[in-house]
Design a protein that fits this description.
The protein is α/β, with parallel strands linked by helices. About 35% of the residues lie in helices and about 20% in strands. The protein has a single domain, classed as Rossmann fold (3-Layer(aba) Sandwich), CATH 3.40.50. The protein has 6 helices and 8 strands; from the N terminus they run αβαβαβαβαββαββ. It has a 4-stranded mixed beta sheet.
């Protein structure tokens, strides 16, 4: 919804072509429908990953999607999906990658005793949270923080930097050198 808000407020010159979830009760789907955005559920339970991704590719192509923005998407994408949208898939992750990739990043950060954590918007490649980094934001970790309080602080920053990263990609004002994204 932060992306939709940024569009509505004129901070992001984009259009949401479709919102897709594999869960009908996903908060993003419910909110998208309430806002009148095109939204659909594509159930994945019991479906082979390659088969599911073929259907997902078809739906995204039918909607003429230029950029895939993952948010809360907890499935690993197939190589075919990533190759189909190569350089056009973004993800937001609740840590300062490359630290604490994968699940439960906030818990991992607290367990490691870090003093700072944050979030990262990165291009998706075939590794786990390993693509070139577009934007990061830092939050201070307090001694009294729990996974929930840390997640809330990080979420505020996610809502700020994801639209910024999308705007950068849509502007084309960047280049990738190795693993580095350089704004031009």
């Amino acid at each position: 919804m932060a992306i939709a808000d940024a569009i509505a407020e004129g901070r992001l010159n984009a259009e949401i072509a479709v919102v897709i979830s594999n869960r009908a009760d996903a908060g993003g789907i419910v909110l998208a429908r309430e806002r009148g955005l095109p939204a659909m559920c594509l159930p994945s339970r019991g479906t082979d990953r390659e088969e599911y991704d073929r259907e997902l590719i078809r739906e995204l192509c039918d909607a003429r999607v230029d950029l895939v923005c993952l948010a809360g998407y907890m499935r690993i994408l197939s190589g075919k999906f990533i190759r189909t949208f190569a350089g056009r898939i973004l993800n937001i992750h609740p840590s300062l990658l490359p630290a604490f990739a994968g699940l439960d990043a906030q818990h991992q950060a607290l367990e490691h005793g870090v003093k700072f954590s944050g979030c990262t918007v990165h291009f998706v490649d075939e590794g786990l949270d390993s693509g070139p980094i577009l934007k990061q934001a830092v939050v201070r970790v307090l001694d009294e923080d729990t996974s929930d309080t840390l997640a809330a602080k990080i979420l505020n920053e996610e809502h700020r930097i994801y639209p910024e990263a999308i705007a950068l990609v849509l502007s084309g004002q960047y280049r990738i050198e190795g693993r580095r994204v350089i704004e031009v």
